[in-house]
């Protein structure tokens, strides 16, 4: 296809060169530069296709996690108006967390697996755990969280909206992680996909076990997070 | 920017498209994969640096005016488009390109309607505006012209789909198909 609307350069020897204009070269180059596998996700701020190991921004006002490209992450993450916040990349195992069984029971979480995070909107602490109907959210009593932080000052470093405390007390485990919120959503996604019946079923627990193993062995740090 | 610069740029971009085509069809998958990785690394290196640069510029005094001037330069504009850093998003650029086409289309008795712009796919519909008879020859060339104008404003568009030319002259839907050229 030739650009008939644009006057052809007939006044120079460039005619051969202007015979065809560049096409959608940006789309071609970006498509080629991407990983070979099919693109499943797009930047939610500028719509460019994303690789599976893309970054995420949190929009605290809407409690929303957005898949973003590097440009949007740099341009809009942690901007002055605080509309979007960057999600940290790494999970960190927390040693020596002091939380007795009685204290845990007092939190009212019916299962040994949960994550807790603070939202700046409303200054509250939310708990997520696998419940009979899949992922369940509950508001944590603020005093309960304050007591937990008083016993474990390291928890005060946890950034609101973008980081969470992941607690695993299943089958006698006592593991605690400070983890990026996008990974928490990945866990929620797993539970939502695999949870069957009241107790979850083998498939759900296998997925949760794999998730914990990956976290323990730092296998998932550059991997795709398919969030729910 | 001089005509010579613009022609040099267009030539580089056409060559770039050609080479991407060559690499995509290359029989040596490992070599092609290395080329892909190399391009990807360089794009990232430049992209992150440029994004920071734009972020600093955006927050600086008079930054917005400076960016507007930068975008007027075809070479800078091409670079910002490549890295998804153009101050106007794809939709805005496509709409503007279409608006510029309206008078030209009107002369030929046609109206253009934007149905959808989603994930790099632009869907348009051409309708006869009535009053002026639409020539069959116009219907053969116009979709290509429309596509060219859109792709020039937005080379990040994946595909332009034009349909709706169901006119009395016996010419039915014309589909411009893939915007990407060999």
As a percent range, the share of strand residues of chain B is: 5-15%
Order of helices and strands of chain A: HEEEEHEEHEEEHEEHH
Order of helices and strands of chain B: HHHHHEEHE
Strand element count of chain B? 3
Largest sheet of chain B: 3 strands, mixed
Number of strands of chain A: 11
The percent of residues in helical segments of chain B reads 55-70%
The geometry of chain B reads as: globular
Distance between the termini of chain B: 28 Å
Radius of gyration of chain A: 24 Å
Task: Please give a handful of descriptors for the protein shown.
heterodimer, A: 228 residues, alpha+beta, six-stranded antiparallel β-sheet, three-stranded antiparallel β-sheet, 6 helices, 11 strands, disordered C terminus, B: 182 residues, three-stranded mixed β-sheet, 59% helix
Q: Outline of this structure?
A:
Chain A is an alpha+beta fold and 228 residues long. Chain A has six helices and eleven strands.
Note down, in words, how this protein is organized.
The complex is a heterodimer of chains A (228) and B (182). Helices cover 27% and strands 23% of the residues of chain A. Chain A is built from six helices and eleven strands. In chain A, a hairpin with a 2-residue loop joins strand 8 and strand 9. Chain B is an alpha+beta fold and 182 residues long. In chain B, strands 1-2-3 form a three-stranded mixed beta sheet, with helices on one face. In chain B, helix 2 crosses helix 3 and helix 5 runs antiparallel to helix 6. Chain B is globular. The C terminus of chain B is likely disordered.
